[in-house]
Amino acid sequence: MTALQLADIIGVICFALSGFLIAVHYKLDILGVFISAFLTALGGGMTRDVLANKTPYVFTDVLPVTLVVATVLISLVLKLHKIDDLEGKTAFIVSDAIGLVSFAITGSLVAIENDFNFLGVLILA
User: Fold this and answer.
1) What do you get for the CA distance between the two ends of the chain, in Å?
2) Which of 19, 49, 62, 113 could make a disulfide contact with 36, Cβ separation 3.0–4.6 Å?
3) What CA–CA distance (Å, rounded) separates 88 from 58?
4) pLDDT tens for residues 66-105?
5) What three-state secondary structure class fits 117?
6) How many Å apart are CA 124 and CA 29, to the nearest integer?
7) What is the pTM of this model?
8) In whole angstroms, how far apart are CA 71 and each of 1, 29, 38, 107?
9) How far apart are CA 2 and CA 81, in angstroms?
10) Closest by CA position to 123, among listed 58, 44, 69, 70
11) What integer pLDDT is reported at residue 56 of this predicted model?
């Protein structure tokens, strides 16, 4: 497993959890929870891959979708939807921060692999 794959897996899980917590905060139904988790976890990576002129990773591998579904289901089992006061909870803050760092690393590595210049690496990160 490469650093790119590891950072991508960590980012998908953390942002899926972040999207789950936001959806629960706004009292969305189960479909809204899944849509929020999917968009939060996979939207940035798809945009990154399109900017790098690559087929989005989510369309070529089943792992990202599986990670999002598993994260939402595990979050439901652990009753993370019972958390009140979203802004003050460390679960949201920590998952969002770790996801942001992981996707910044992933974006930088993808840009470097595709021979982007310094500005391109900064934009993609």
Assistant:
1) 21
2) 19
3) 32
4) 999 999 999 999 887 776 665 557 888 889 999 999 999 9
5) coil
6) 33
7) 0.89
8) 20, 16, 10, 22
9) 33
10) 44
11) 92
**How many beta carbons lie within 10 A of that of residue 87, not counting itself?**
7
CA nearest 68: which of 98, 36, 90?
Answer: 36
Q: How far apart are CA 106 and CA 6, in angstroms?
A: 9
Angle between helices 90-113 and 30-51 (to 10 degrees): 30
DSSP assignment string, 33-101: HHHHHHHHHHHHHHHHHHHTTS--HHHH-SHHHHHHHHHHHHHHHTTGGG---GGG-HHHHHHHHHHHH
- The residue among 103, 92, 95, 101 whose CA lies nearest residue 44 is 103
Residue 21 in tokens: 């917590």
Distance CA 125, CA 101 (A): 9
Residue 2 is classified by DSSP as -
Whether the Cβ atoms of residue 63 and residue 9 lie closer than 8 Å to each other:
yes
Place of tokens 């959806």: 23
